[in-house]
Amino acid sequence: MSADIRFAWRGAFTNPEVNALHAEAFDTAVFDDWDWEAQVQRHSLGWVTARDGTELAGFVNVISDGSVHAWIQDIIVAADHRHRAIGTTLVRCATDGARDAGCRFLHVDFDDDLRDFYFGACGFTPTNAGLIEL
Ligand SMILES: CC(C)(COP(=O)(O)OP(=O)(O)OC[C@H]1O[C@@H](n2cnc3c(N)ncnc32)[C@H](O)[C@@H]1OP(=O)(O)O)[C@@H](O)C(=O)NCCC(=O)NCCS
Question: Which residues' Cβ are closer than 6 Å to ligand 1?
């Protein structure tokens, strides 16, 4: 379980921390110029950080239409911290934060291999969604 992990809605983080976590999670190069701090401060409803001591162990971005809909994007947990309920707790904190902000629906989309995580562990219900690659 994640009892020793500290979760924070709109918790402090640095760009290098999230860029490193993101690169590991999605198996990409580290994007040094991705300014997460400015991005989420300017455009997001909120975000959730998970810290194991001083280490950033997880992160999720929560975006919104400014009304009743919110979406989670880029949920990431450090590889050596997975399967300790950090991902599900990040989603729970995102749900609480969006609800507290007045939202009524939290959306997500994902590939088939994550059905057990989102439907099974996090409690999302299936819905139709669409995508246009730009
Ligand atoms: C998906 C992710 C956030 C899950 O984080 P986590 O902290 O390991 O998740 P939890 O410990 O809360 O998982 C709870 C349950 O969900 C399911 N689950 C978790 N990760 C899963 C995965 N990658 N695939 C399928 N099911 C998964 C399991 O049933 C798990 O229970 P278990 O630990 O007893 O096996 C993490 O694997 C990750 O960062 N992946 C890379 C980035 C990514 O793909 N993000 C999603 C973008 S849509």
Answer: 25, 75-77, 82-88, 110, 113-114, 116-117, 120-121
Report pLDDT digits (tens) over 32-57: 899 999 999 999 999 999 999 999 99
Joined together, the tokens standing for residue 57 give: 């162990």
First to last CA, the chain: 39
pLDDT > 80? residue 1: no
Bridge partners, 77 (sequence order): 58
Residue nearest to atom 9 of ligand 1 (CA): 87
The token duo for 74 is: 């880029």
| Residues with Cβ within 8 Å of residue 124, at least 6 apart in sequence | 106, 108, 118
